[in-house]
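Many introductory courses stop at the sequence. We go one step further.
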Amino acid sequence: MIATIIHTALAAPGAGKTQAMIEKLPNYIKQGERVIIALPTRRLNGEILSRMKDFNLNPKVINSDEVHNKSVSKSIEGTLRNGNENLILVTHEGLKLTNPELLHGWTLVIDETPTPLTLHHDTLGDLEAQQVFRMTDINDNFLTIKPGMITEMKQRISTYKASKKDQSKASTLSGLEYKLFEALLSKQIIYIEEGLKKGKVVFHFHTMIESNIFSHIRHAKETHILSATIEGGLFDLFSKRFGFLYKISPFTPAPFEYSCNITIFPMMNGMWSKTQALKGECGDSFWLHFANYNGQVIDKVLANAINHTPEEDFLVIANNWTDFGPHYDIPNKKNGIDYSPIDCRGLNIYKGKTAASLLFSGRPSPNDQKSLQILSDKYGISRNDLINAWVVTNKLDASLQAVTRTAVRDRENKKPVFLYVQDLQVAEYLKSTHMTNAIIDTSLAMTPPKQQDNRCAVTLDEKDKASDFIKSSFEKGMRRPAVNKALIELWEVSEATASRWTRAIFQGANPKSAEGLEQFVA
């Protein structure tokens, strides 16, 4: 079988990949080519449409904003079938939902490397799980649809979707059941584990959503991917496993180097992880971020970065489990802070930022690793190769995309840019790819504290932190049982003691001089 070619336009973020593609599109259209462009997110439409108009390009835009109550996938498929358009603008997600066979004769352009794999992990109690099991079977721990249940499952999914658009239509399907049934109907892998939680039976669902993007690439007349990097990530691993070859795309822009001075500061010795980032002053382990300034490692890292360059405009990119925002007080900060989601590909609204702090991990969780092992067995790819590719995609390349949202991409910027990244692995990746002239400065790297036999010397002021800890948990909306569980599991106190402390705060009183809490306060 002849290998399918993927044309790659590889260049640094901000080098003008999208612009180079737009400038060459008119000739493609004049030659009778039909082109479908997939963007990573619909929020990029406005900027790209504005640039396309300068070249008399008027694409048909098909996404959830444009089709409203209609199905996005059916709208795309209908447009591909009728052949009345020669230029279509969709999203990665819209493309994945589309029948690949309809791309025959079309040139496919994918802006940014598509994600071939998404992992979900959900837990259901026994009662809710039984609702799922009524329509499914478990075979060797894998969930399958019971014979004769496909039609009912499709009907229930249809009713659920209708109820989201029209509140007068009721659905008994939960959001998680909907996700599981959708995955089963699209022949995705769902692995089941039974466990105990607070003495009650629960079921853990590990769902592996594999994109059919490679089927789209095979059916298209030709495919171009505009990206900063491909090598070493999940897309690269699977594309090579499926026999694809790369060739330089004519959409590749002219060579580009960042002109400003860039200093990269790895902020942690060793590998950044959620476990390390959430540690307290004494090495205590926590399971959530309490957003107490300078209280946990992640707070110290951000404070060290900002205090190092307090007059710079900062961009902070962190996981959604962190609790930063307008309420978060950073002493000595002279200018404002903007917070961005990790997936900020294509965004140009932060070009004025001269400093960035990256506070996300991107490493596979234990649940992720379990799913990657299953995929390793399915495809004959080593588990280590999958984990390494996961890290490249979700940590290293995501970090490159994040830091290049800043002033480094502004060709007129002459100010120095300061990048405070997670660890040396990220710093070296940035320098080895598109920031070859950057300086790596390890002077701010901190070593996470080790636990000191569960004890710390506590001042009277620190005793008050015990009350603050519980109060902050309630302010975050945590229920008393959840706070109690944190005290019991993480600090090994009795259930009665945990209940007494939280009850006192819940009723508006402090624990008596924070008595007995000295050994647990970070």
